[in-house]
Amino acid sequence: MTVTITPDPALKGPAHDSRSRGRARLWASIGGQNLSLIGALVVVLALFGALNDNYLSLTNMQVIAEAATITGLLAIVQTVVIICGGLDISVGSQVGVASVVSAMVFTSTGSNAFLGMAAAVGTGLLVGVLNGLIIVYGRVNPTIATLAGLAAYKGLAQLISNGRAQGYVLNNDVFVFLGRGKIAGLPVMVWILAVVAGAVHLLLKYTDIGRNLYAIGGNDTAARLAGININKYLVFVYALIGIVAAIAGILLTARTGSGQPTSGSEGLELKAITAAALGGCALKGGKGGIGGTLLAVALLGCLENGLTVEGINSFWQNVAQGTLLVVAVVIQQRRNGERAVGLPT
Predict the structure, then answer these.
(1) Degrees to nearest 5, angle at CA 129 with 125 and 134
(2) CB-CB contact of 168 with 258 (8 Å)
(3) Which pTM does this prediction carry?
(4) Whether the Cβ atoms of residue 125 and residue 246 lie closer than 8 Å to each other
(5) 68-127 pLDDT, tens per residue?
(6) In sequence order, which ranges of 109-187 are alpha helices (DSSP H)?
(7) Phi and psi dihedrals of 259, rounded to 5?
């Protein structure tokens, strides 16, 4: 006996197709990578919230947001440079230089906060352009060039500051507002991060510059044949990194109350690269976005704060960051179908 099963008409038709397309568009807009990050973030929040009643308090959430701002700024521009096939390992040292310059110029100009900040941004622009020129016209691999910058700019910050914190800026309303002020209940630092993130997102997603950056990272030969001036774009990207790193340095000065040559800026490059990789940036270039990077920054910030609140040795934070970076790269390689090292193609 043959049994025929007739599909329910209610399960098909235009309405069903419309819902399916809607779910597909929603999945595509969020992305599997971002959903994984959201899931991991929920787990971290639930875990540390269960361990400590104060972890999920509004006060602690603001502490996490403020602490993650500087990392977030650097992760955003690290995302941009990775998309176009580059890398910048010197961002932490650039933050240190900008922090010291902002405080020293502030002090030497009779407590003029705006001159101090302008000097820091100008220094950041100069350093970023220098990195770009070395990479483009010196024909130096970006990793090597910025690794050299990591040491050189750190040394420069220590030289001009004699290795000590410089100035005191918390007697100035502008720096106090930047470091401790709030707008609509949120810290000013978080608003600055939101503005930078929004601007870079629009640049990448809705402008020819953004499309060209993705093209350069995806296939630089094809991009060159299409008439894209790759050298110009690379110098632009590293200049952008310098400017945003300078903004991060100014916020570091405002948050700590003085110019910091190394304290507060060491290790930022690892955090920024880890956040970009976790957020879905392909380290070979051509893929990535600001949304995923910000989710990864939030995850790292919540994890770091939770470990601190629980009194876990801070050295474990470095272990966690390194582990997350390796995991992110392994996942990327698996998704791309990369063969294991040593195996035949």
Answers:
(1) 150
(2) yes
(3) 0.87
(4) yes
(5) 999 999 999 999 999 999 999 999 999 999 999 999 999 999 999 999 999 999 999 999
(6) 113-137, 142-161, 173-180
(7) -75, 125
